[in-house]
């Protein structure tokens, strides 16, 4: 019953900020790397950034210096702090994580349902 649930999306004006959360729940043994993706209207899903189990982050150039990924391993939660938002950031944001479930014998990829972020001009 491992699940990933994103939250924190909404409507914001250009230049504003939002913080998204991705909470993993269920019978979890361990969480390895986690990633944020986004899918804009009419476009393919693309990677935003990633964070390792140790906290090392990577970002695509378009969000570098504006977005920050962090995680709280004690809460099984990853965050995406989005600052200086632009209309082109409008997308459904998805959480992805590599998780070892308590009843599983291997690591598997899990996806959240997505949360909508809309940036108005």
SSE topology sketch:
Layout: E1 3-7, E2 10-13, E3 18-25, E4 28-39, E5 46-51, E6 57-59, E7 67-72, E8 77-82, E9 91-101, E10 107-111, E11 115-120
Parallel strand pairs: 2-11
Antiparallel strand pairs: 1-3, 3-8, 4-5, 4-9, 5-6, 7-8, 9-10, 9-11
Notes on the protein architecture:
The protein is elongated. A hairpin with a 5-residue loop joins strand 9 (91-101) and strand 10. It has no helices and eleven strands. The protein has 121 residues and is mainly β. The strands form two sheets. Strands 2, 4, 5, 6, 9, 10 and 11 form a seven-stranded mixed β-sheet that branches. A four-stranded antiparallel β-sheet has the order 1-3-8-7, with no helix packed on it. It starts with a strand and ends with a strand. Helices cover 0% and strands 60% of the residues.
Order of helices and strands: EEEEEEEEEEE
**Sheet having the most strands:** 7 strands, mixed
Number of helices: 0
Low-pLDDT windows of residues: none
Question: How would you describe the shape?
Answer: elongated
What is the average per-residue confidence, as pLDDT, rounded to a whole number? 96
Strand segment count: 11
Instruction: Kindly estimate the percentage of residues that lie in beta strands according to DSSP.
Output: over 45%
Residue share in helices? Answer: under 10%
Distance between the termini: 40 Å
Radius of gyration: 14 Å
Structural class of the helix and strand makeup? mainly beta
Compact overview of the structure:
The protein has 121 residues and is mainly beta. The protein has strands at residues 3-7, 10-13, 18-25, 28-39, 46-51, 57-59, 67-72, 77-82, 91-101, 107-111, 115-120. The protein has no helices and eleven strands.
């Amino acid at each position: 019953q491992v699940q990933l649930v994103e939250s924190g999306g909404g409507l914001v004006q250009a230049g504003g900020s939002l913080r998204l959360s991705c909470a993993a729940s269920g019978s979890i043994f361990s969480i390895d790397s986690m990633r944020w993706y986004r899918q804009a209207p009419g476009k393919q899903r693309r990677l935003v950034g990633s964070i390792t189990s140790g906290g090392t982050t990577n970002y695509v150039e378009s969000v570098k210096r504006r977005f920050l990924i962090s995680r709280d391993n004690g809460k099984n939660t990853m965050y995406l702090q989005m600052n200086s938002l632009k209309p082109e950031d409008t997308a459904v944001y998805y959480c992805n994580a590599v998780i070892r479930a308590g009843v599983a014998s291997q690591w598997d990829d899990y996806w959240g349902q997505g949360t909508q972020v809309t940036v108005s001009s």
